[in-house]
TrEMBL record:
Enzyme Commission code: 1.3.5.1
Compartments where located: Cell membrane
Organismal lineage: Bacteria, Pseudomonadati, Pseudomonadota, Gammaproteobacteria, Thiotrichales
Domain Fumarate reductase/succinate dehydrogenase flavoprotein-like C-terminal: 511-645
NCBIfam families per UniProt: PRK07573.1, sdhA_Bsu
Domain FAD-dependent oxidoreductase 2 FAD-binding: 40-450
Cofactor: FAD
Key word Membrane present: yes
Protein name listed in UniProt: succinate dehydrogenase
Pfam families: FAD_binding_2, Succ_DH_flav_C
Protein's organism: Methylophaga muralis
Length: 646
């Protein structure tokens, strides 16, 4: 399953702070007069997709955009709450591009490229300028300066925010820029369309097949290159903080056309989520990491107190375990570390709240001290909409009693492998935002997802896509046999879903079973035996899926059951690869916690000499036998060390 030929990311050489500037100088450009001759397809219109489409159209390219929602404004980027990082150093507390770079490299447990991460830190300040110019209403200090707050994994205040609606406000900025280009005629947008397949002509990505989700019609669209900005695959676990529509289908179809899939087992668990209420629940809700600025996380010291009203538990009977275990960072340790600590407390019998499978899964996030010190008005100004959301869901007022939280699947650091130019291993196919693997390593530092999406869309892809197009002759308008082949394949797959030999169960039935396998065996704790069992269980479940999937209706109309079935089919195959990747990585790093490689107190143990590489998996035609190709990671400016937050 391995390949001796290592991958080359084509990262530039030289001083780290000069690499992106020098690289841009070396890239080719298309003259303004010629840009209208080139066409670009952008799939996904969240932060990365909308900003990339707007930027490319502003430059003069002809752009087509596609999303499965009824509007780009409904992209899952809108759900991001806490903020976006930038090394502006407004608080004069020692922040810099280098410090942000190091925090991200360290936060990712030294499993990301130096060049990519430094570029992201470098571009962070320009992102804020861009957003302010668009009118994004960031919070401001009394003086008028933009406000900052702290986030996990950092000891400086660098997170810009718009209350708990940062993702929504940033997406509206990108959407308005995109809408302007739609009105100008430079972007042709298609809502309620879902990508079914990638079209390759002479080995290059030249188009896509999409299905109109209202009419069921399949259509093909050609361009000179394709950009996928379709988000992450956290919904493979069924229960996650992602919107129910989030899926892996676009990047997985590209993977089956030769695009390498990198680090699929690196899936981030977010510690600050509303705990599961019942076994039939289908969605979990995120509570922003920003709440850990003022909220204190604790659990009862005595298991006998777990059923009591938390307000009746005396201070000396509370265990503020993150502050005890990590005094330097306290409640602001990175997400993977906080999540494992919460799991350890609950496994120790000190969880609170509802019982799921006989275990109480929750700890307290308490704002009593913050309200006492700062006043209820100040705390409500910071977090009021988050408090309202929590109260609507739980019928509990977090200003009067502590929140209950528990970890849940949130973000995926894995994704399509891309080089420094964000091009996949398929010529002409680019991937941006959460759809690629590039910047986060084994664990995403909080408030860096929005940063990556906008850096890719506003600043990187417009430059690197132009370089690619400068070396291409515009695609001719004629009939290509590859188009009909892709159309036929897409139709045959729909037919297979609709005509299972023994139809019995809905897509959700299979998805829930897959999610439980992944959560139990490839979630916060992993071991060799469980991963091997998971691979076997997923293979059996996949066979049953194709035999017993039941879909009413047909493919010539709105059919949401058919939509879900296609996405679950892709999750089945990806889920197996996630477990194969986790099994092959005989170390613990970031969110990947192999119990065989944890210290006695639950800290991860990396094996840099053996696993200091990116795992890029190639589809061989058989999902059971993928091929591993390694990209060695080189650290010229930082020295990988123990990831200590104490």
């Amino acid at each position: 399953m391995t390949d001796e030929q290592p991958l080359d990311s084509f990262s530039p050489k030289g001083p780290l702070e000069q690499r992106w500037t020098q690289h841009k100088y070396n890239l080719r450009v298309v003259s303004p007069a010629n840009r209208k001759r080139y066409r670009v397809i952008v799939v996904g219109t969240g932060l990365a997709g909308a900003s990339a489409a707007a930027s490319l159209a502003e430059m003069g390219y002809q752009v087509k955009t596609f999303c499965y929602q009824d509007s780009p404004r409904r992209a899952h980027s809108i759900a991001a709450q806490g903020g976006i990082n930038a090394a502006k150093n407004y608080h004069n507390d020692g922040d810099s591009v280098w410090r942000l770079f190091y925090d991200m490299i360290k936060g990712g447990d030294f499993r990301a490229r130096e060049s990519n991460v430094f570029r992201l830190a470098e571009l962070s300040t320009s992102i804020i300028d861009q957003a302010v110019a668009q009118g994004v209403p960031f919070a401001r200090e009394y003086s008028g300066y933009l406000a900052n707050r702290s986030f996990g994994g950092a000891q400086v205040s660098r997170t810009f925010y718009a209350r708990g609606q940062t993702g929504q406000q940033l997406l509206l900025g990108a959407y308005q820029a995109m809408s302007r280009q739609v009105a100008e005629g430079h972007i042709e947008h298609f809502s309620r369309c879902e990508m079914q397949d990638l079209i390759k002509i002479d080995g290059k990505a030249k188009g896509i097949v999409v299905r109109d989700l209202l009419t069921g019609e399949l259509s093909s669209h050609l361009a000179d290159c394709v950009v996928l900005c379709t988000g992450g695959y956290g919904n493979a676990f069924y229960l996650s903080t992602n919107a129910k529509g989030c899926n892996t289908s676009a990047i997985w179809r590209a993977h089956k056309h030769g695009a390498l899939f990198a680090n699929p087992c690196f899936t981030q668990i977010h510690p600050t989520c509303i705990p599961q209420h019942g076994e039939l629940q289908s969605k979990l809700t995120l509570m922003s990491e920003s709440l850990r600025n003022d909220g204190r996380i604790w659990a009862p010291k005595n298991p006998a107190d777990c059923g009591r009203d938390p307000r009746d538990i005396l201070e000396q009977d509370r265990d503020y375990f993150l502050e005890r275990m990590y005094p330097a960072f306290g409640n602001l340790v990175p997400r993977d570390i906080a999540s494992r600590a919460v799991k350890h407390i609950c496994d120790d019998g000190r969880g609170v709240g509802h019982e799921i499978n006989g275990q109480k899964l929750g700890v307290y996030l308490d704002f009593a001290d913050a309200i006492k010190e700062q006043g209820a008005d100040v705390i409500n100004e910071k977090y009021g909409n988050l408090f309202d959301m929590y109260q609507r869901i739980t019928s509990e007022d977090p200003t009067q009693q502590p929140m209950r939280i528990y970890p849940a699947v949130h973000y995926t650091m894995g994704g399509l492998w891309v080089d420094y130019n964000l091009m996949t291993s398929v010529d002409g196919l680019f991937a941006g935002g959460e759809a690629n693997f590039s910047d986060h390593g084994a664990n995403r530092l909080g408030a860096s997802a929005l940063m990556q999406g906008l850096a890719d869309g506003y600043f990187i892809l417009p430059t690197t896509v132009s370089d690619y197009l400068a070396r291409q002759t515009p695609l001719e308008d004629k009939d290509y046999p590859e188009v009909q082949q892709a159309m036929n394949y897409s139709q045959s797959r729909l037919d297979s879903l609709l005509n299972a030999p023994e139809p019995k169960h809905t897509p959700d039935h299979f998805h829930r079973r897959l999610g439980k396998i992944l959560w139990d065996h490839c979630g916060m704790a992993r071991n060799e035996f469980a991963l091997k069992q998971a691979i076997e269980d997923i293979q059996q479940l996949r066979e049953q899926f194709w035999r017993e999937i039941k879909i009413s209706g047909n493919d010539k109309q709105l059919n949401q059951t058919l939509e879900r079935a296609g996405r679950v089919a892709d999750f089945m195959e990806l889920g197996e690869l996630m477990c194969i990747d986790a099994l092959s990585r005989e170390e613990s790093c970031g969110c990947h916690a192999r119990v065989e490689h944890l210290t006695s107190n639950g800290e991860v143990q990396r094996r840099d000499n053996d696993f200091g590489f990116v795992s890029a998996w190639q589809f061989t035609g058989d999902v059971v036998q993928p091929k591993l190709i390694k990209e060695p990671l080189h650290f010229d400016f930082v020295s990988p060390g123990i990831r200590n937050y104490q």
